[in-house]
Carbamoyl phosphate synthase small chain (Natrarchaeobius chitinivorans), 358 residues
Amino acid sequence: MTAAYVALEGGHVIEGRGRSPGTARGELVFTTAYTGYEESLTDPSYEEQVLTFSYPLIGNYGVREERFEDDRVHPRAALAKEFTDEVVAWLESEGVPAVDHLDTREIVTDIRDGGAMKCGIAVGEDVTEEDALEQLEQCKTMSEHTDIGAQVSVEEPVVHGADNAGPDVALVDCGAKGSIVDSLLARDATVHVLPYDASEADVDAIDPDVLFISNGPGDPANYEEAISLVRAFVEDTPVAGICLGQQIVAEALGGTTEKMAFGHRGVNQPVLDLESGRVVMTTQNHGYTVDDPGDHLEVTQINVNDDTPEGLDGLEYDVITRQYHPEANPGPEDTLDFFDDVLAMVPAQKTTAVPADD
């Protein structure tokens, strides 16, 4: 059996079965999702993290590229009770270490009790515990990854749906999932994907009907350019955001954000809409949250489990954000109408699309 070691912050080392070789380090997190492993492994929001699957068998319906959210695997390593050979072959082709035969229940409990933590991984024929501990020593916190956006963003602007008749959306790519773009295209929007550090001139060149800040990894305070864009355009242009995008919008408009103990990662997070009283199930993947929305935003939705803000609306500006993933890949489709609400902020003469039949 190929040796595999997982060194946890504090020095505890767990031994498992090595499935895909290599060394890695990152923030150790877990997801409670029981499906959607392809989407999770290709979600850019997992950049610089080590992903633990709490569901015991990962890979039981194969690997299909059409389910990918990006063109590569983003977690630095993956842990599970058991990986199928097909998933292992995929991770090995991507150069991503994988370890199974682990008691993932204990790992999840450790994270829930102690919070997301740094870890080091070593997998291979000749690796030792010291190799994993060496990786742990070199591991940074998520806030220390000050330019993480460069690892997950497009380098140059990309246009999708150029022939569509609906609104022009400037999507600031801080690590956008492909299904966000697909959801906007399905509503006949033209989506102009911009780098995470796009300038005001880049946005002005588009003259968008909506400025949309995407999901992504890391500390929202480190996305200074995106924060500046929201401040520059919010008075004249509708602004939307998903996940990290909600946090960036809050930072831009005088609110504050904070690191969560272990975050929300899964496809069964209950969210309460404060106006309607309706509870919806949502897909989530984030380690930071809005602490105080400030004076320009109001909290419209909260997480049923811990009361953290899940939806923000602008008080004097056209702003709508969600902490969860309305595009629902993977997960429940309770909140797909968010994209209709975003495009409804555009003046009627610019909105020619019919809401998508999802």
User: Anything to note?
Assistant: The chain has two domains: 3-140, 149-350. The two ends are 46 Å apart (CA to CA).
